[in-house]
Design brief:
- The protein is an alpha+beta fold.
- The radius of gyration is 19 Å and the shape is globular.
- The protein has a 5-stranded antiparallel beta sheet with strand order 4-5-10-6-7.
- The model has no long low-confidence stretch (mean pLDDT 96).
- The chain folds into 3 domains: 46 residues, Uridine Diphospho-n-acetylenolpyruvylglucosamine Reductase, domain 2 (2-Layer Sandwich), CATH 3.30.43; 118 residues, Uridine Diphospho-n-acetylenolpyruvylglucosamine Reductase, domain 3; 109 residues, CO dehydrogenase flavoprotein, C-terminal domain (Enolase-like, domain 1, 2-Layer Sandwich).
- Helix 11 runs antiparallel to helix 12.
């Protein structure tokens, strides 16, 4: 099926893109296009205007400091996966980016496009919640920042306004913090390589005990969620296999998504199993 007729505008700058979005209520941003174009062909999405931001160079690139990493929204999955600086500063991100789809998608798809689309089966939203990321967006009134826990609102719905552009993502450079480790594991759908269930885990150790534990599950609810009971169960515990296994059994997120491949009950079971594995790996990495 072909999409309906649509006007096309190639933005020359972020300001130009924002201005076009502001003037056209039915406009949609086009970055890598891996989600939008198929939706248009199926007539699920029918934008009046496509605003192509794929040629705005200022929206690409990775900047690393001792404390944080700033990633341009148009940075491709392949660039995230290949960045040596990122592998040292925030290794969980390139680890996950390398698991996305196939080389064609990774070389065209962008981190910002994935986050703005907010697919419940995408990998980045789960990671961003686990990392306490901050999103910088630009609109008619200038820039504003949105915390990850306030960015994802519902299925394919974010806090972005219709005339705003996601320009960059900032995450902590936890690789430079002693005693910190992270891991991302997912059960891949055999056809799409999307996450049937994705688990992001972070462990911070102090004097051999867990000073900080983060567990976020994606793919089982409309938006990724913290497994608060699992995180609490690990506080001040030694990161042994027995303690981690017992904590993972406290998975308190009720799975609401399911399909012919994986029911909600199956996803809930997977989340427990994968949380244990991700936490074990994160603890090993935290211990050096």
């Amino acid at each position: 099926m072909y999409s309906s007729n649509v006007d096309y505008h190639r933005a020359t700058s972020v300001a130009d893109a924002v201005k076009t979005l502001e003037k056209n209520k039915g406009a949609k941003l086009l970055a890598g296009g891996h989600s939008l174009i198929p939706s248009m062909k199926l007539r699920v999405a029918n934008p009046a205007v496509l605003v192509d931001i794929g040629h705005i160079k200022s929206l690409s690139g990775i900047k690393v400091t001792k404390k944080e990493v700033k990633i341009g929204a148009l940075t491709t999955h392949a660039a995230v996966a290949a960045s040596a600086e990122l592998k040292a500063a925030c290794p969980i991100l390139p680890e996950a980016a390398a698991l996305i789809a196939d080389p064609q998608v990774r070389n065209r798809g962008t981190i910002g496009g994935s986050l703005a689309n907010a697919d419940p089966a995408a990998d980045y939203p789960t990671l961003m919640l686990a990392l306490d990321a901050t999103f910088t967006v630009t609109g008619p009134k200038g820039e504003r920042e949105i915390e990850a826990n306030k960015f994802f609102k519902d299925l394919f719905t974010t806090a972005l306004k219709r005339d705003e552009v996601l320009t960059s993502i900032t995450v902590p450079a936890y690789g430079n913090m002693p005693g910190m480790g992270g891991a991302y594991l997912k059960h891949r759908h055999p056809a799409s390589s999307y996450a049937v269930v994705g688990i992001a885990a972070m462990i911070g150790l102090m004097d051999g005990k867990v000073a900080r534990a983060v567990v976020v599950a994606g793919g089982i609810t409309a938006n990724p969620m913290h497994a608060v009971a699992v995180e609490s169960a690990l506080a001040d515990m030694e990161p042994t296999e027995a303690n981690i296994s017992a904590a993972a059994d406290n998975m308190d997120i009720e799975a609401t998504l399911g399909d012919s491949y994986a029911s909600s009950e199956y996803r809930a079971h997977l989340a427990k199993v994968m949380a244990k594995r991700a936490l074990m790996l994160a603890a090993q990495r935290a211990g050096g």
